[in-house]
Amino acid sequence: xxxxxxxxxxxxxxxxxxxxxxxxxxxxxxxxxxxxxxxxxxxxxxxxxxxxxxxxxxxxxxxxxxxxxxxxxxxxxxxxxxxxxxxxxxxxxxxxxxxxxxxxxxxxxxxxxxxxxxxxxxxxxxxxxxxxxxxxxxxxx
Length: 141
What we know:
Layout: H1 2-28, H2 38-73, H3 75-78, H4 81-84, H5 88-92, H6 95-116, H7 121-128
Helix pairs in contact: 2-6
């Protein structure tokens, strides 16, 4: 149980950091570039869909057989390789959630690059291979 709580906290902390990055990107180039939220929203909802798929197809269903194995055969059997060979299908059912989550991560990375474009135009132009509008001076600069 302790490991699950620790992993949940790490996921929450990572989510909080991603939100902070979006917040900082918005205000770093607030008046110098347009800030489009479409890719970020798609990434957000795909992250959530990936997590729901993980829970529905893998974490929840695969949690019951080990619990039954603990009650019937003991903890050592429920944690053994011999037992986990019987749950192979459930382990592979994690793949759809992984794919959706990976697509969300790629969308978010692309969105970060596009949002950094006005700030680091030359760097982003090299990576994306398309011209980026140069940052215009902000008020008072």
